[in-house]
Amino acid sequence: xxxKVIWAILLLLSEEVPLEDLLTKDTICKMKPIADATLYNVVxxxxxxxxxxxxxxxxxxxxESRFTYNQEPDEILISPKxxxxxxxxxxxxxxxxxxxxxxxxxxxxxxxxxxxxxxERWGKEDIHLCHYNSGNRCNRYSRxxxxxxxxxxxxxxxxxxEDDFFTVETVYISLIYSQCPKGQKIDxxxxxxx
Length: 194
Description:
Elements: H1 2-13, H2 19-22, H3 25-43, H4 51-65, H5 104-122, H6 125-134, H7 140-161, H8 168-177, H9 188-192
């Protein structure tokens, strides 16, 4: 499944960067922790796979930060309004500091919690996504933002509804993915108790 997530990320990024420039070891290895963390946050909390939440997280990360594609690995993306990281969470609305959003796993946890909260509170997808962007009010800009998220979800939906687990793209990605550095071990105690 992680190969499909990486394929979805690359497909979204290909709106601005030629796909042949994205299908490289450097890019796939850079997207590996984002794909792993996003997939973990969709499966682990409920122990069942939620395709819609996965597509929403990927679309939000794309619209909010372009998966931090142009960032250095230890650089935190901070907006002028103080939103941080992959999903552009605002620390004053969470129990974390901006530096905590450097790790895609924690950033994903906060994003899932917030998306679930606003889904429950406002229901309809275009409305709750509008609120993800603007808080308690929806304006013209945040409505456009919601449309962009829904459009991004539509662009990758087919990847997660295909019956074939392996496609030409996912086989190619899996071969490169296996060559990526393993990454460092996460100290889970420290991670969950910042």
